Amino acid sequence: MKNQLLLAIFLVGAIALPDTSSREEERLTFIDNRLELVYPVIQRFKSLITLDPFKVTQTWIGSDVCSYRGFHCDNPPDNKTAVTVASIDFNGFQLFAPSIEGFIDLLPDLALFHVNSNNFGGTVPSKIVNLKYLYELDISNNKFTGQFPTAVVDMPGLTFLDIRFNSFSGSIPPQIFGQNLDVLFINDNTFTASLPEIPGDSHILFLTLADNKFNGPLPRSILRSMSTLTEVLFLNNDFTGCIPYEIGLLKGASIIDIGGNKLTGSLPLSLMCLEKVKQLNFAGNLLFGAIPEAVCMLLRDNLVNLSLSDNYFTHVGPWCKVLVDRGVLDIRSNCIPFFPGQRPIEECAEFFVKQKYYCPHAWFHSFLPCKYSHIPSSPSSAFMPMLAPSP
């Protein structure tokens, strides 16, 4: 009887206990109502996080949202006296949450969202299109899935998009290449299909499509419209066909890497137009023929690395040999007679017996889409330099 009485008293007391957590929230005072609006958004997202090795979320307490680790405040463009959450930087926090929906899309004044190297999953919410100030989106090295986040296509203010090292799949909307982007990194996903042809010009400076499953030919329109590119990485995909002469239109590029694909045919002479290129990688393809002497001669001063290994080239001339001796040109595992480190004769013979594909419009490979002072005016002199290099 005594125990039952004690239990009844305990239960009554428990029912009568005040909700201290809700009262604590009621007592919070925010320096700006914009911070008050995002506070519950942050707290709901905090409740979804099941792994926090660096105890980041322990700082997400109280009304001083601007002091939360990973959150940065500033004055929004529409009200210079207001204070709001302007950027998120969770890079390297290794937080685990099943989704960012209901978080990023409910921070209306967000300008930067960087969450590299966490364990966020799900899809990218379509409502991010309403974030009118967002200009940098980095969700790389997470566990996102689904199709390409097409909402970004309707975000004209976006200049930086990095979705590398996730599990996105499907195709790429052609409109993304016409965005006002400076940086587009979509490598190390599972995108498939061929790259789309694109209308108009592109302003992209850094483009990385590497380590996906893109197939089909290299789109000539992408190369034609991206004269501003500084770095272009197409390596480790399934691109086929020949290298179009439009590659020579990448006049601002310092790095071009198209290694590890299934490209065939010969190297286009338009590579001579790449005045600023320092690194060229075509290794691991099905390229064959003679390595163009004119390319070696005209690019010899700027080139740091030209990798043509693991192809089926059959001839190297004196200018190219100079680059081999300098350690600039790598021609290992080709079919060049009397040159060390080549494929077995039987392997080369088998390739050329089976090789049935020839580039359409083969004359395009001799076309020079540039008129620079470093290129001889006479086509014959470009094909066959009169003077051999000094030993």
UniProtKB/TrEMBL annotation:
Mode of membrane association: Single-pass type I membrane protein
Family matches, as InterPro entries: Leu-rich_rpt, LRR_dom_sf, LRR_extensin-like_regulator
Intracellular or extracellular location(s): Membrane; Secreted
Signal peptide extent: 1-22
Keywords associated with the record: Glycoprotein, Leucine-rich repeat, Membrane, Repeat, Secreted, Signal, Transmembrane, Transmembrane helix
Main location: membrane
Gene3D superfamilies: Ribonuclease Inhibitor
SUPFAM superfamilies in UniProt: L domain-like
GO cellular component entries: extracellular region; membrane
Assigned protein family: Belongs to the RLP family.
This protein's name: Leucine-rich repeat-containing N-terminal plant-type domain-containing protein
Source species taxonomy: Eukaryota, Viridiplantae, Streptophyta, Embryophyta, Tracheophyta
